[in-house]
Specification:
By secondary structure, the protein is α+β, with helices and mostly antiparallel strands. The chain folds into 3 domains: about 200 residues, ATPase, nucleotide binding domain (Nucleotidyltransferase, domain 5), CATH 3.30.420.40; about 200 residues, Nucleotidyltransferase, domain 5; about 100 residues, Alpha-Beta Plaits. About 40% of the residues lie in helices and about 25% in strands. It contains 17 helices and 22 strands. The strands form 6 sheets. Strands 1-6-5-4-7-11 form a 6-stranded mixed β-sheet. Strands 14-13-12-17-18 form a 5-stranded mixed β-sheet, with helices on both faces. β9 and β10 form a beta hairpin. α1 packs across α9.
Length: about 625
C-alpha cells in the first residue's frame, strides 16, 4: 500500500464528508422501480406497453441479487453500436425456493412482460462467481488442435478439480513473450455442473431457455470490450463490494487478467457498526478543517437497546447520497456521517490493502502493466466523491464509480433510467450480460468442446456450401454456353431465312414434292432408254475394246425381263466365243490382257473363262475361248 499519514488522510476525508448536507429524497419514480415496475423505452405521447415485434439483435441480461431481480434489454443496432431499450428492478423473496412452481410462474410472467414472447430474444443470466475458479496461465505456442490439450494439463497441474462435477473452459487472450519465449496467455475457469444445470432448468421451466450463462468478471469485461465503459484499451480494475465478500477484477486491453475474491464485504462494515454501537466505546476525534491541532469531540454511543444487523445496515446506508436520512425513532439517528465512516474505517482499510496487494501481484507475477484506473461498485452505494478521493490517496490510482447507466452516456438514447446512483450502479452486471455474445463472452453452457463440435459442423457446412457454389457456377457456365449456342443458331436461322427470301419462287413443301416427282419421272425415262439400248451399248463397248488380233465368233446376252415392283432385278449375263491370233507362245497372254480390259469397263464385271483350246486355222495356231461376264447393275438402271 502507498505510504501515507493515516491520521491526516482520514481527517481530511472526515472533513469532506462532515456537515449537515441535506440528503436528496428519492423520487417517486425510484419507488416504482423498487416495487418491480419495468422501465420501458420512451415513445412520443405514451409509454410502450408491448414489446416491439422485431427482436433481431436484442439481448436481455439478468442478474439475480439477494432481494432483487434486475433485467436489462439492449439491442445491437450496428457494428460496435448498441441501444438501451429498457431496464427493470423486480423485488424477490429471498426465502422463496427457486425450484418451486410459484417461482417458475413468477419468472415466466416477469420475462413475458419484459422480453416478450419466448424465442424472440437472447437471454443471458449472471451466475455467482463464488464457486467459479479462475486462473490465468501461459502455455507453449502449439498448433491450434493442441491448444485445448495444453490448457487442460497446464491447469490440471495447478488446480485439482473433478471433471465429473465441474466444467472446464478457457479463452485465449493472445501471444505473450516470457523469458524470450513466445507463449499463449489463457484465462481458464471451472464451474460446477450442478449449478449450471440448476440455472438452465430454472429458465426452461419458465418457458424461456437461456442463450448463455456467465459471471460478474466477464460481465464487466463485456462493458470494456464493447466500448460501453471507458478504459477498454488500458489496464483498469473493477472493485465490487458485495454482501459477504468482494471481488477485484483487473483488465488489460479489455481482457480479464486477474480475478480475485476478497473475504470482506459490506457485512464486515455492518458488523463494525454493530460492534461500535452496541459496545458504546467509540470516541471520535475530529480535526477541524483548516486547524493545525486536533480538537477532540467525544461521542460516546450508549443505545438503550442493542441494535441488530438490519439496523446496523440501515445506519451504513445513510452514507449513500441516495438514502433517506434516519428518523429520530431509528437507532443511530444522532450519528453523523463522519462518525459512521470512522466506525467502518478499519474494515474499509483492510479491503483497500487487499486491493493494493492484488495490483502488486498483477505487476510482479503476471507481468501486467500497472492499473491506471479503478472502478468501484457495491450493494450499498457509499462510494461518494470524498470516499473515492480517499481510496485514490491510499493506492495512488484515480477512482470512479462504475455507473454504466450514467445520464449522458453513449448508447442510452431516450431510454428511461433510474435517477438514483445506487440503482444505476446495481444494474452494472445485468448491463454486461445484455451485451453478451458467444463471440466475446465466455459461456458456461458452451465450452471449448461444444465450440470444437460447432466449428467442425461449420467447416462441413462451409465445404458443402463451397461445393454447392461450384456446382452453381458450373451450371451457370453451361447455361451461358447453351445460351450462346442458341443465340448463334438463331442468328444462323435468321441468315438462312434472309437467304431464302432471295429465291424466286420461294421453296415450299408442295414445290419440292412437284420437283421430286419430275425428277423421278425423268429417272424412269432414263432407265427405260437405258434398258432399251442396253444391247447396243454392250456391243459398242465390246467393239471398242476388242483388238484386231481377237475375233468374236458368237455373242449371247441374257438380259432378263424388267423386275416387278419390290423385287430384285435378275443378273444380266453375256457369253462370248472367239479366237485369238498371234504367236503361239503369246496367245494366253493376249487373252488375259483382253479380259482385263473388259473387267476395267464400267459395263462388265465378274469375268470368268469357261473354256480355251488351241486349234489350227488357216495353217496357224489360234486360241479358241469361251468366256462369261456379267453386266453391272449400273448398266441396267
Amino acid at each position: 500500500m502507498a505510504k501515507r499519514d493515516d491520521i491526516s488522510s482520514t481527517q481530511r476525508l472526515l472533513d469532506l464528508i462532515r456537515g449537515d448536507r441535506p440528503v436528496k429524497e428519492r423520487p417517486a419514480q425510484d419507488a416504482d422501480i423498487g416495487s418491480g415496475t419495468i422501465i420501458p423505452q420512451k415513445e412520443r405521447g405514451a409509454v410502450l406497453k408491448n414489446i416491439w415485434p422485431s427482436r433481431k439483435g436484442i439481448t436481455v441480461g439478468i442478474d439475480f441479487a439477494y432481494t432483487n431481480l434486475r433485467l436489462v434489454k439492449i439491442k445491437q443496432t450496428a457494428e460496435s453500436q448498441w441501444k438501451l431499450l429498457a431496464c427493470a428492478n423486480v423485488p424477490l423473496d429471498p426465502d422463496q425456493p427457486r425450484e418451486g412452481p410459484e417461482f417458475s410462474r413468477f419468472l415466466k410472467k416477469t420475462l413475458s412482460d419484459f422480453a416478450g414472447p419466448s424465442g424472440k430474444t437472447d437471454i443471458w443470466c449472471l451466475m455467482s462467481s463464488a464457486q467459479i475458479e479462475i486462473r490465468h496461465i501461459r502455455i507453449p505456442k502449439v498448433p491450434k488442435k493442441q491448444v485445448a490439450n495444453a490448457v487442460y494439463w497446464t491447469y490440471k497441474r495447478e488446480v485439482e478439480f473433478d471433471e465429473n462435477e465441474n466444467i472446464l473452459d478457457f479463452e485465449i487472450i493472445g501471444d505473450i513473450l516470457e523469458d524470450g519465449v513466445q507463449k499463449l496467455a489463457a484465462t481458464v475457469y471451472t464451474a460446477p455442473k450442478q449449478e449450471i444445470k440448476r440455472l438452465k432448468d430454472l429458465f426452461s421451466r419458465s418457458g424461456f431457455p437461456l442463450s448463455g450463462i456467465s459471471i460478474g468478471p466477464f460481465a464487466y469485461q463485456n462493458l470494456l470490450r464493447t466500448g460501453w465503459m471507458e478504459g477498454g484499451d488500458k489496464t483498469v480494475a473493477s472493485l465490487y463490494v458485495g454482501r459477504n465478500w468482494s471481488r477485484i477484477d483487473i483488465f488489460s486491453s479489455g481482457n480479464l487478467v486477474l480475478a480475485r475474491g476478497i473475504k470482506a464485504g459490506m457485512n464486515s462494515m455492518v458488523e463494525s457498526i454493530l460492534e461500535a454501537v452496541n459496545e458504546g466505546r467509540n470516541e471520535i476525534s475530529i480535526e477541524m478543517a483548516g486547524e493545525g491541532s486536533a480538537a477532540p469531540v467525544p461521542a460516546v454511543i450508549e443505545p438503550e437497546e442493542p441494535i441488530d444487523m438490519t439496523q446496523a445496515r440501515r445506519i451504513l446506508s445513510i452514507l449513500s447520497p441516495d438514502s433517506k436520512p434516519l428518523t429520530d425513532a431509528e437507532p443511530g439517528f444522532y450519528l453523523k456521517h463522519d462518525e459512521i465512516f470512522r466506525m467502518i474505517l478499519p474494515a474499509f482499510d483492510r479491503l483497500i490493502r487487499q486491493v493494493d496487494r492484488s495490483f502488486e501481484y498483477c505487476v510482479l507475477n503476471l507481468k501486467s502493466d500497472r492499473v491506471e484506473r479503478l472502478f468501484v461498485a457495491g450493494q450499498i452505494h457509499i462510494f461518494t466523491r470524498p470516499v473515492l478521493d480517499y481510496i485514490h490517496e491510499q493506492i495512488g490510482i484515480p477512482c470512479d464509480i462504475n455507473d454504466p447507466l450514467k445520464p449522458g452516456a453513449q448508447f442510452l438514447d431516450d431510454a428511461l433510467i433510474p435517477d438514483s446512483v445506487s440503482e444505476r450502479i446495481a444494474f452494472g452486471p445485468a448491463v454486461g450480460m445484455a451485451l453478451a455474445s458467444r463471440s466475446r463472452t465466455p459461456d458456461l453452457t458452451f465450452t471449448y468442446r461444444e465450440k470444437d463440435e460447432q466449428e467442425t459442423v461449420t467447416r462441413i457446412n462451409r465445404s458443402i456450401f463451397v461445393v454447392f457454389l461450384i456446382i452453381i457456377a458450373l451450371c451457370a457456365g453451361v447455361f451461358y454456353w447453351q445460351d450462346q449456342q442458341i443465340g448463334e443458331k438463331k442468328a444462323r436461322v435468321i441468315a438462312l431465312d434472309q437467304k431464302l427470301e432471295t429465291y424466286n419462287p420461294r421453296l415450299s413443301q408442295e414445290l419440292i414434292l412437284q420437283l421430286a416427282g419430275k425428277v423421278n419421272k425423268k429417272s424412269r425415262e432414263i432407265k427405260a432408254y437405258g434398258q432399251k439400248y442396253l444391247v447396243l451399248a454392250i456391243l459398242n463397248e465390246l467393239s471398242q475394246m476388242t483388238p484386231s488380233h481377237i475375233r468374236l465368233l458368237n455373242f449371247t446376252a441374257y438380259l432378263g425381263a424388267n423386275p416387278k415392283a419390290g423385287k430384285k432385278s435378275p443378273k444380266k449375263t453375256i457369253l462370248l466365243e472367239g479366237i485369238v491370233y498371234g504367236e503361239p507362245g503369246k496367245l494366253d497372254n493376249a487373252l488375259a490382257t483382253y479380259l482385263m480390259k473388259l473387267d476395267a469397263s464400267p459395263l462388265f464385271s465378274d469375268i470368268s473363262v469357261n473354256k480355251t483350246t488351241v486349234e489350227d486355222l488357216e495353217d496357224k495356231k489360234v486360241l479358241h475361248f469361251w468366256t462369261r461376264l456379267h453386266v453391272t447393275s449400273l448398266a441396267g438402271k
